[in-house]
Specification:
The structure is a single chain. The chain is an alpha/beta fold and about 550 residues long. About 60% of the residues lie in helices and about 5% in strands.
């Protein structure tokens, strides 16, 4: 029934809004100190170059050269260049351009670009906590916010200027706004759903898949006319927004979208990236259970347990059923999508990151179920103390795991995998995106390598040249992709350790290494493989 939420009424809504604002601010404050510490990831330098082109184009567009700037060739050169390495629609790069223009003098590179992702993460955590509280109860909202904030892999992506956090925010806001329209019937939720979905369309092809789980959920709510209304009007508005915020599509909106779909559906031939899983290297296509295993392996165990507790809300009638069903549909959709033979599964859990806020909401619902049962059995002051103790029991391990994994959040594995060391023994990928080349590790490289040293960097020497261009590594160092060289700098991405490089990684001792729980993420080796002792980069500290 419409309006079945216990959070109906102005006062509960105001409290849930304040809770959302509080969690959003906490999330931003938690991520801000590490913006420049996490290593510049593989894709980011290309995005930074795009941001510079966008900023230059914008300066022309608001000057006397605006006619030239708005010509199709000028638009394509600024917003749609270098498609093989930079194939995504550019709305998220426009957001990066704004934060860099405003905060570049304060945060520098890469922090000013990355601030856009952190701000979106703050909005995401705030929306997760606030809307869960609004639709269920305050305790569930608090737990949902904590569950998302304390997912180390998601928290890590809040520090990276890429497509993943913007897409995750757009997907979650569009979905939850659709639900709120069904429950409350207010047109503002259609406007928010369409705007968020349109931003998603202008960020990554994956957003075009969102109507599928929404339609599945709509069928489960077949008695609701509002479900049809929000889908039809929301998608129509999204298509309009997607063109308006994406200048790359202005010269040829239909042709741009057709090319985007074609490239995205042919990734196996376009960008065939391999995955290391259960001790084997899979070339693009992985076993169907990969996403399920990686999700369970990279979530804190308590969060997973709370999400499973919430599953009974899917079956039972009650105020939280619609929210629980919506989240269950989203989780099932993502796991099914990633199980398809043609779905890319590389890079840890990055490609299904939009699923995790719904897992957090499920964890919040589960926590609400447990605290409700606890409150019914105890009275007095214990009704307040009990939920607090329960929160400590469930979320203290996740907090500890997040702190201990810093700044290597993308290498985190939870208790079910036995941590990073256990995951390595299971044959799961330790690292993949150069985020282990932290500010501290770069400083050690600068101090360790002699002037003019020749370094064979595998699997991507160009990446280190890009760091030099950004002023993040000494300019005199000479990086190359093939031997010979004075040193070898080896990323422990096992999916790409081919030929003799795997032997170097397994049998040689690095002169300098970044490690998490004893698992090497990246190492500097003497060319003969006889380095001195490992420099143990303890999580949370610079070497």
């Amino acid at each position: 029934m419409v309006g079945e939420t216990p959070a109906s009424g102005r006062r509960p809504r105001a409290k849930s809004a304040r809770l959302g604002v509080l969690f959003g601010l906490v999330a931003i404050a938690a991520g801000l100190p590490g913006l420049n510490e996490i290593g510049v990831t593989w894709d980011e330098p290309r995005y930074f170059e795009s941001v510079e082109r966008i900023q230059a184009w914008t300066a022309r567009a608001v000057s006397s050269e605006w006619r030239e700037a708005l010509s199709p060739p000028a638009i394509r050169a600024a917003w749609d260049a270098d498609r093989y390495y930079n194939p995504h629609p550019p709305a998220y790069k426009a957001a990066m351009a704004v934060t860099d223009a405003v905060f570049g003098g304060w945060l520098g590179v890469p922090g000013a670009y990355r601030l856009s992702s952190l701000l979106m993460f703050g909005l995401l955590v705030g929306a997760t906590a606030g809307w869960t509280a609004r639709l269920t109860r305050p305790a569930a909202g608090v737990a949902a916010g904590l569950a998302l904030l304390l997912m180390p892999r998601v928290f890590g992506h809040a520090h990276i200027a890429a497509t993943d956090m913007p897409l995750t925010l757009a997907w979650f806001v569009a979905t939850m706004s659709a639900l709120l329209y069904v429950l409350e019937g207010r047109r503002r939720w259609i406007l928010l759903a369409g705007t968020a979905l349109g931003f998603g369309f202008a960020t990554k092809f994956t957003a075009f898949l969102l109507p599928i789980p929404l339609a599945a959920w709509m069928l489960l709510q077949a008695r609701e006319r509002r479900s049809v209304v929000v889908c039809v009007y929301g998608i129509a508005l999204a298509m309009l927004v997607a063109v308006l915020v994406n200048p790359a599509a202005w010269p040829d909106p239909v042709g741009f979208q057709r090319r985007l779909v074609g490239e995205s559906l042919s990734r196996e031939t376009y960008v065939p990236i391999s995955t290391y899983y259960l001790g084997r290297v899979f070339h693009f296509t992985v076993p169907w259970h990969h996403a399920v295993v990686m999700t369970l392996a990279t979530l804190p165990a308590a969060t997973t347990a709370l999400a499973f507790v919430a599953l009974k809300s899917v079956i039972r009638r009650g105020a939280t059923r619609r929210l629980a069903v919506l989240c269950a549909v989203q989780v099932a959709f993502w796991l099914a999508l990633m199980a398809l033979p043609d779905s890319p599964n590389h890079d840890g859990v990055r490609l299904w990151l939009p699923m995790f806020p719904f897992v957090a909401v499920m964890a919040g619902i589960g926590f609400g179920v447990l605290t409700g049962a606890l409150e019914r059995r105890i009275g007095g002051a214990a009704r307040t103390v009990g939920p607090l103790l329960l929160a400590c029991l469930f979320f203290a391990p996740a907090l500890i795991g997040t702190v201990r994994s810093a700044p290597y959040y993308l290498s985190y594995y939870g208790e079910l995998a036995g941590g990073a060391a256990g995951a390595a023994s299971w044959g799961l990928e330790a690292t993949y995106w150069f985020d282990a080349v932290t500010a501290g590790f770069r400083e050690q490289l600068d101090r360790t390598l002699p002037e003019g040293a020749s370094v064979v960097a595998y699997p991507n020497a160009e990446y280190f040249e890009q760091l030099q261009a950004l002023g993040l590594l000494r300019a005199d160092l000479r990086f190359r992709g093939e031997p010979p060289g004075d040193y070898v700098l080896l990323l422990a991405r096992k999916a790409m350790l081919e030929g003799g490089w795997e032997a170097v990684y397994r049998s040689s001792r690095p002169r300098l290494a970044a490690e998490l729980a004893g698992v090497e993420l990246i190492g500097l080796y003497d060319w003969n493989g006889q380095g001195s002792e490992v420099v143990d980069t303890t999580p949370g500290e610079t070497p």
